[in-house]
C-alpha cells in the first residue's frame, strides 16, 4: 500500500484515497497479491470519473463529512466491481 517510485511521490489526494480504502476495510477481501493492481486501477478511475472529488480533497487539505461520504460511495462501487 502506497509504494511510490523514487522521486515520483503520489499527490496527497491520491494518497488519501488509497489510505481511505485501506483503513476502512475495502481492501480486506482483496488478495494481498492484487492490492497493487487495485491501487493502480483505482487512482486512474478516480482521476477519470471523480476528479472533482480529488480536487476538493486537494484544495481543502481535509476530508470533510461530505467528501468522506462521496469517497465512501465511490470506493464501495469500485471495490464491488474490482
UniProtKB/TrEMBL annotation:
<protein>
    <submittedName>
        <fullName>Alpha subunit of the F1 sector of mitochondrial F1F0 ATP synthase</fullName>
    </submittedName>
</protein>
<dbReference type="GO" id="GO:0045259">
    <property type="term" value="C:proton-transporting ATP synthase complex"/>
</dbReference>
<dbReference type="InterPro" id="IPR038376">
    <property type="entry name" value="ATP_synth_asu_C_sf"/>
</dbReference>
<feature type="domain" description="ATP synthase alpha subunit C-terminal">
    <location>
        <begin position="1"/>
        <end position="78"/>
    </location>
</feature>
<dbReference type="InterPro" id="IPR005294">
    <property type="entry name" value="ATP_synth_F1_asu"/>
</dbReference>
<dbReference type="Pfam" id="PF00306">
    <property type="entry name" value="ATP-synt_ab_C"/>
</dbReference>
<dbReference type="GO" id="GO:0043531">
    <property type="term" value="F:ADP binding"/>
</dbReference>
<dbReference type="InterPro" id="IPR000793">
    <property type="entry name" value="ATP_synth_asu_C"/>
</dbReference>
<dbReference type="GO" id="GO:0046933">
    <property type="term" value="F:proton-transporting ATP synthase activity, rotational mechanism"/>
</dbReference>
<dbReference type="GO" id="GO:0005524">
    <property type="term" value="F:ATP binding"/>
</dbReference>
Amino acid at each position: 500500500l502506497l509504494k511510490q517510485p523514487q522521486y515520483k511521490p503520489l499527490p496527497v489526494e491520491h494518497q488519501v484515497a488509497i489510505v481511505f480504502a485501506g483503513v476502512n476495510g475495502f481492501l480486506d477481501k482483496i488478495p494481498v497479491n492484487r492490492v497493487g493492481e487495485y491501487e493502480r486501477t483505482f487512482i486512474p478511475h478516480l482521476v477519470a470519473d471523480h476528479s472533482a472529488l480529488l480536487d476538493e480533497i486537494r484544495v481543502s487539505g481535509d476530508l470533510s463529512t461530505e467528501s468522506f461520504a462521496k469517497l465512501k460511495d465511490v470506493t464501495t462501487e469500485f471495490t464491488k466491481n474490482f
